[in-house]
Every structure is written in structure tokens, then in C-alpha cells.
Amino acid sequence: MEALGSTARTRLHRVPKAAVTDRSALHAILDEGLICHVGFVSGDTPVVIPTGYGRVGELLYLHGSPASRMLRALGAGAPACVTVTLLDGLVLARSAVHHSMNYRSAVVFGQARLVTDTEERVEALRRFTDHIVPGRWDQVRQPDAREVGATAVLALDLQEASVKTRSGPPKDDDEDYALPIWAGVVPLALIPAAPVDDPRLLLGLTPPLAATAPRPHA
Amino acid sequence: MEALGSTARTRLHRVPKAAVTDRSALHAILDEGLICHVGFVSGDTPVVIPTGYGRVGELLYLHGSPASRMLRALGAGAPACVTVTLLDGLVLARSAVHHSMNYRSAVVFGQARLVTDTEERVEALRRFTDHIVPGRWDQVRQPDAREVGATAVLALDLQEASVKTRSGPPKDDDEDYALPIWAGVVPLALIPAAPVDDPRLLLGLTPPLAATAPRPHA
Prior knowledge:
Oligomer: homodimer
Helix content of chain A: 10-25%
CATH architecture of chain A: Roll
Number of strands of chain A: 12
Largest sheet of chain A: 7 strands, antiparallel
Number of domains of chain A: 1
Structural class of chain A: alpha+beta
Shape of chain A: globular
Strand content of chain A: 35-45%
Number of helices of chain A: 5
CATH topology of chain A: Pnp Oxidase, Chain A
């Protein structure tokens, strides 16, 4: 397993033990997550926007309207920080200050590249669709040339990335373990409910099995 | 219902119809969410970090080690952007490019204030704990003066905030509604599983009911 690149930005100052330095952990988080939070600077102000994404190899693709503020800023070369967080559980300790959450998060730094090559744009659109539901691209109407051209696609290299996780039981102060207070973890997961048909759905169609399978789909 | 403040930063340029301009919608998102993504600028670089939080009235509280990079930056007056996103469903359209997600998100801009008043710090710690599990603060060992002093607490005013949501079925192109492709929404929710006892739990203790209740707890 290749180590994640370590730079002044991705080095974890406070909790170095929480850093995971293999790329498979990074990929697993990005593939299991559905939305990322994209940070960029507008004037002197940080802006954090949630959006979908897709990973292909060592690239993370973002997309949207070419007129969106985020796409314009990133397409013009503004430094970006893209964070994906999976919330795995509530950590209930015996003392208030040791309450916490179990999670896995990935933070990627870099400058995005505006994707101009048509083939790469189509590949990114395929990945966005299959990221929402595996195999979906092959089941739906694929975009025509006009639609491919109307979507701005950005690629962010995963070279400068860090992974941070917390798992396991709470960590209480030694003397607090004797307290008669329940402590432990309440696992959390993003669970799909029964699909809701589109009001204009043709008769006799059923949802794809992959859409209702338990996540993670990675 | 009071309108959210509208500034150049919070005005939604692309999808003004997606803006929700009442404070109860903002509060509901912040109260249902468990983690926020905090954006700040370090050098020229945006940084986006996931963390817990708590809301009290028109204030959002953050906390952590006084030595953490985020707490130091925000405590020194760096502009912040705090975003909370609730993922409500996968939106499966008949065409690839109309795939989307249903969500509710809140974006708050401002400069955080370092909370020095002890009473306000304790109130914020109470809110962090009760935000994880309602009523938890009164069931656990509450922090002593040393613990209250060792935690950095920041307050961010909710004055400059915007809410954006998507809900409902996919929006396909008119001619695509005739295609024999399933379309609709797969609802998603963060669901708690059975609590896992701490390995050092005393005998005879059971988890608090509120920890296993379906979220949202708002």
C-alpha cells in the first residue's frame, strides 16, 4: 500500500495517530461517500459547498453548471480543499467531555483542472452516475454531445490527501469507569428506504436492485 | 418567520428558488445534523474540517483542543464558513445528466468569537453533549473547572446564513418521460443500529432510550 503524500497541509498536528497512510483507505472513503464538501476562497472568505463527485483512479471529479460560483472559482485555478466525511457512530462516554463520534474522513488539497477532453468528460459523467447507483449509467439515457458540452467537469488529483478516522469505544478517565453510567457506541449508517416511484413513471417498471442494496456499495 | 439575512455571500446566484428564507428551516437543519464542515483559510489555502457542534438560539458553538489548527485560526478571528448538509435521498432520473440528490443544507458565514465566560462555556458543553443524545448531559459526569478550562469554545453568530434544499422527484427532459426506465427517489436516512456496550461497562446498565430513537431528534 502506497503512503499518502505528507505535506505541511495534510500532516495532522493534533492527532497523528489518527492519520491513515494508505491509499486504499482514502479510496474506500471516497467511494462510500456520496457528497463532498468543497472549500474555496472567494475574496478573503472561505466558502464550503456540498456537492456530488466521482472518483476514477487517482482523480476526483466534480461537475456542475459552468456558471456556478464554485465551478468558476475552481476552474480558474483557485486552491481547493475537498472533504468527505462518513459518520459511523455516536460515542457515549461516562463523562460529558469525552463524548465523541466515530467517523472516517478524507481531506484532499489541490488545484482542480478544467476537463476539456470530451472522452474524459464522458467518463467523468459515467462515474458521477454510477457513484449514485452502481451500474446506473448503462440503464439510462446517456448524454448527447450538447449535454456533455453544457456540463463543467473538474478533476482534482488525489496526490495531496489525508485520512483521519475514529473508531471503537469511548475513552473515559480512569476513575470514571466505576460510575454507574451506560457508555458505548451507537452505530450510525446511511440506510436506503423503499424507493418512491416518480409520479410520471410508466407502468411495470421496478427500481434497480443496486439502488436499494445496503450502502456502502464500495 | 424572520427572513435570513441576505448578503453577497449568502445570496444564491444559480438557484435562487432553492433558497429558504426562514430561520426555523435553518435551525431545523442545524439541530438535525450531527457534524458540520468548517472552512477557514490557512495561508492562501482553504481548509475544510468536519467537527461536532451545538446550537443555542442564534449561536452555533464549536469546540476542541485550544491547540488545534482550526480552533487557533478561528479563535484569532479568521473568517469562517460552516456548512451542515443532510442527505435525504438519491434522485434517479431517466437520463444520466438529471441524476441528483435530495438534501437540505445550511451555510453560515462569519467570524467566530472565542468564548471566555465560564457560564457560557458550560452552556456550550451542555449543548454539545445533548446534541449527540438529547438529555445526555444530565445522565453523565459533568465537567469540572479544569475540564471547562481545557476546552476551547467558539461561538458563531447565525446572522449571515443561507439554506438550500432539493426535494421531490427527478426532473427529466419532456421527451425522456416516455422511456421505459425506472425513475424516482431512494430516500436515505442516518439510522442508529443496536448500541454496542463499552467493554468495561458495569453490569446491569442499559443505553439511554434517546440514543436509539430514530433520528432526527429535533
